[in-house]
Structure formats: C-alpha cells, structure tokens
Amino acid sequence: MFRRTAAVGFTAIEGFLDRLVCVLGAVCAAQAPEFFQQYLQRLGGHLAEINRQLVAYHAAAQAAGKPLAQFIAETTAHADPGLAKLGTTMDATVQRAEHLAAAHFALTDASVWSRPWEFFAHLDVEIVRGTAAIYQPAVPTTAEGAVYAAVGLGVAFAIWHVFIRLPLRRLLAPARPTAAPVR
C-alpha cells in the first residue's frame, strides 16, 4: 500500500521535477561562458601587468647594451646572491608572460566547442581562484550561452532520468501479484 501511495505522489510531482531539473541544468551550464569571460578579463589584466614589467626589464637590458636573454643569464650567474635572485626572478617573469600570452591567445581564438578544452589546457589556478572569489553569475544572451544552456539542459535531463527518475519509479512501482499455481 505504501509503495502505491508513494508512486502516486511521485507521479504527481514528476512533471514539475522534470522541468526544474532542465531549467537548473540550463542555467548552471550557461554560467560557463560567463565564467570564461570573467576569467579572460583577469587573465588579460595579469598579462598587461607582466608586460609592463617586461618593458622595464627590456629597458634595463638595453641600458646595459645587451639583449634581454643575455642580460638575464648574466644577472642569474652573478656572484652577488641578491643579483642572482633578481636574474632568476626576471627569467620566471619572462616564462610566466609566455604562459599567460599563450593562454590568452588560446582562449580568445577558441571556438564555442573548443573553449572548455583550451581553458583546462591553459588553466592558471591562481587566476581561477581569483575569478571564483569575485564571480558574478549571469545568463549570457549570446549564441555561445544558448549552446551551453542547451547542452546543460540535455545533460541534466539525462542524468535526472537515468540516475534518479527511473530508479525511483522501479523502487516505488506497485508489487506485481504472483500467479496462483495451476492445479
């Protein structure tokens, strides 16, 4: 009797839950392009700042009459530990600038379909944390936002039906009467 009552109750709210899951899936997935955009803005800010530092390093190397790579190598090899550390810092800055520029180019050049893969391939955890800390949810009204929303709707609907709805229906289905043995 309980299973039958529970099954009737579940059936009554099943349509509402179907729609709710679809809307939540669409809204959540549509956040991806917005997060990518806010991440890209922070990435661009980091890249602009590091390029400003590189301009100063190039100016110092030019004042010494050397290309930047040679200036960094000689500074890193200097006997004074402070200057050697400065050389190491300049080298790390150049490498970080290359990494940030590659990530920025990959994300700005990526298509709707390749952007998630490029994002994870060039992920900078520090920038992701900074973006997440100030992230402002939004529903993008772009074609990319619509694609992500549609994918999110489909994925949420499939997960709902396969892992929640169907198992609950089986669990709450009324017990089938067993046939009496034939005499």
Task: Put the structure in a nutshell.
The chain is mainly alpha-helical and 183 residues long. It contains six helices and no strands.
Throw out a few tags for this protein:
183 residues
Stretches with pLDDT under 50, minimum 5 residues: none
Beta-strand share of residues? under 5%
- Cα-based radius of gyration, to the nearest Å: 28 Å
Query: Which word captures the global form?
Result: elongated
Question: What is the H/E string?
Answer: HHHHHH
Number of domains: 1
Mean pLDDT: 87
Distance between the termini: 29 Å
Helix share of residues?
over 70%
| Biggest sheet layout | none
Structural class: mainly alpha
Model description:
The structure is a single chain. By secondary structure, the chain is mostly helical. It has one domain (20-170). Helices cover 80% and strands 0% of the residues. It has helices at residues 2-63, 68-76, 81-109, 115-121, 125-134, 143-172. Helix 1 crosses helix 5 and helix 3 packs antiparallel against helix 4. The chain starts with a helix and ends in an 11-residue tail after the last helix. The model has no long low-confidence stretch (mean pLDDT 87).
Write the SSE topology.
Blueprint: H1 2-63, H2 68-76, H3 81-109, H4 115-121, H5 125-134, H6 143-172
